[in-house]
């Protein structure tokens, strides 16, 4: 029998990403996010998943018992902002840390706010300054890792999502050399898709290690210390 | 993912205790693969899944590495741990074969010579013995088209192919030999990737057909964008037919069956690819060249 893998839709591949940092034996998964975000990360019929709508249902969350094996933040960190400190990305991560059992995993994705597209959206959407304040610490992949570790997580990783989170085909390491060689290769391979000016811009960015600026989303995971 | 990394470390296939980075890829088929890099250079390739069985693919990758040591990535191993299974090869640092590469005075000859050596190697792997009846893969292809909208076009072509196959050498095909699966290394060696269909069919000429189709699309794109559409410095179908030992008349008769077999091999891919291939089949079936 000649095995053939089934073709997967973008949403199926996104759920596959959320399974990546998991061991498979997790009993309790909490999704904190805007309405509808749980289905982005996990199957609707997954009985392990509990959903809490962010930010309305988080009052006192950091005083709840730390009992979850996984806290997922699908698009949560950059989906909302509020008064200083209340709706900030750092607050979400602190709550996730508080709700996780020792050894538990936080996993999520967010807008890459300092990407070309992220900056365009920031400038066109209003309240740019307030949003940047709310998302401080998560503007880049490197800062995302630093903020996760600052919140008490270990083994933090943050990847560029290629081409976009709704149709992910690759997670690219944010380590400089790995990212540079990957993006140079991808831009060269995809040259037929670009205009001449678009290609020159992309290859120039890739060669100096800035290929990640063209990726509109980030994907992260980290583990709470045992 | 941590279990995958622990497994390859435990087996001595990749030392995860030293600094490394990883890029993770999702194919259209929802399997996952990783390229582990050190100092930006690809070192090890891992394909893994807890949903599908990769053992046959691992066998094919291992067979490809033995059959094409100069062109296929070095096979490292296959492992299973509960429902998780993974296959590992050495990664290759390469530049993709693109229209730019094909038009380069430096790289185009390397591609051309690499492809000739590849098909010479393929010829040496062929079994010239005539067989009493077509192999099982031919029946699988036939069955696939039994309920297919292209049935009226496919069945006569496949029926005609059956007896012909008994007289042609049986050469295991790569099964997806297209530009996207080629690379040029620093030492100008041609490397070939994605051997998951290797040996699934043994229709001589299939790999040449898919390559011709792929390069034809590249040439069309180049002409449409005001670039030279002559890729003969990189791709010489006559030289490749000679390398393969395939009579031009026989190859001409094999084009439609090759397109049908290629479409069969892509049966679980996306609708775009399937539609493009069916268009090629229709064109060939009408007696034209795509």
Order of strands in the sheet with the most strands of chain A?
2-1-3-4-7-5-6
What are the secondary-structure elements of chain B, in order, as H or E? HEEEHEEEHHHHEEHHHH
N-to-C order of helices and strands of chain A: HEHEEHEHHHEEHHE
As a percent range, the share of strand residues of chain A is 15-25%
Query: Regions of chain B with pLDDT < 50 over 5+ consecutive residues?
Result: none
Low-confidence stretches of chain A: none
Number of strands of chain A: 7
Share of β-strand residues of chain B: 15-25%
Walk me through what this model shows.
The complex is a heterodimer of chains A (about 230) and B (about 290). Helix content of chain A is about 35%, strand content about 25%. In chain A, helix 3 links the parallel strand 3 and strand 4. The model of chain A has no long low-confidence stretch (mean pLDDT about 85). A seven-stranded mixed β-sheet of chain A has the order 2-1-3-4-7-5-6. By secondary structure, chain A is α/β, with parallel strands linked by helices. In chain A, helix 7 packs antiparallel against helix 8. Chain B is an alpha+beta fold and about 290 residues long. In chain B, helix 4 runs parallel beside helix 8. At the A-B interface, helix 1, strand 6 and helix 7 of A face strand 1 and strand 6 of B.
